[in-house]
Amino acid sequence: MVDIDNVLVSLGMGRYQFMGCMLFGLMIMYSNVSPTTYVFTASDLKYRCEIPECDSLKPKERTFEPEWLRFTMPYRNETNQPRKCLRYAALSGPLINGARCSSDRFNKSETEWCQGSWVFEDFENTIGTEFGLMCEDNKWKLSMVGTINNFGQFIGIPLSGIIADRYGRKFTMVFCAATSAAICIIQSFSNSYLMFMVLEFVSSTVSSGIYTATFILAMELFLPHQRVLYYSILECFLPVGSILVALIASLVKDWRILLRLINIPGLLFFSYFWLTEESMRWLESQGKHDKVINALKKIATVNKKPFPDLPTNAQGQSLESSEDNDANFSSIIKDIIRSSTIFWRMIRCSYVWNWIWSEFFLKIRNKDLEQVVMLRNELGMERDSFKKDLSQH
Questions:
Q1: What are 237-268's pLDDT values in tens digits?
Q2: 2 contact partners, CB below 8 Å, separation of at least 6
Q3: DSSP bridge pairs for 118
Q4: Which of 43, 91, 193, 225 has the smallest CB count inside 10 Å?
């Protein structure tokens, strides 16, 4: 069996590791695209009802919060922002734009829902505007996109681990990246909310395997005492993916174009089948000793270092080792339970990981929860108004 770490130490760091760091860095950057994109494709915009009595006939001349807005629609006490889908009822008379725009022409004791037209502070074409997911009663449909995305990751991460053990780390990395890009491009042609949600789940499930497989492949390239340093460098690529998504979203303001622009380049990751090597430790565990030797020789050639002499019995040791290491899932679970060190380390890491992500998503969802409370209060006001109208009749 080849001692891969010792061979890597003798070959040293060089051009091969630098090129690998850049290639895997780009892949890690792309791995953060799918978990971020839904924030913009399903964003909740700031908008209000169109007031035909006051708003200009020309859409470009309309403003989100003109001076007359406070006597035409109710405001939220918590945010001091106009309600999105409620307005004050207009008194009887012909509806002529601008001809009835005065405070005495609106009944502030009676509200009514919008008639399907809105004025946006900063318009963006999202799934909310395109699929009619407007107003607070449809807010949960926009929030559900993030839930589905995270649920897909929950399913995809362990599934990608099984695939990586069966078919290899490189196959998993390339398959997840290229397939995820293709699915997101297809998603950009969605013609319904249901189609969008189904593809959101599939794409998040597939893309969740990119980071783990890439991380394993990258760490195997570096010398043992330098892995922490290069891990930190590779992690710097992760937020760059989110930054690029946000930058492109701020420029295009269209969810379909956004999905295409950020995912069409992802199809190029199919070239990683030829640009990168398979995990040497995985190849060793599968008994593919010759491929391990070839990968090490390639590193030596690129780094311009002499290849060290290996033991002549390495081939036989590798084959025997592959049979011993061919452990199935149940045997791995048994090993974890038997080793108190591994077991308690797993418990601690799982607790810390779940705590970090729980805090992160709770802060993200805090604003949504506040809006749910506002919706409840608003519906309560409408219910009381409805009861009052019934009692009068």
A1: 989 998 999 999 989 989 999 999 999 999 99
A2: 284, 289, 292, 293, 296, 310, 314, 318
A3: 49
A4: 225
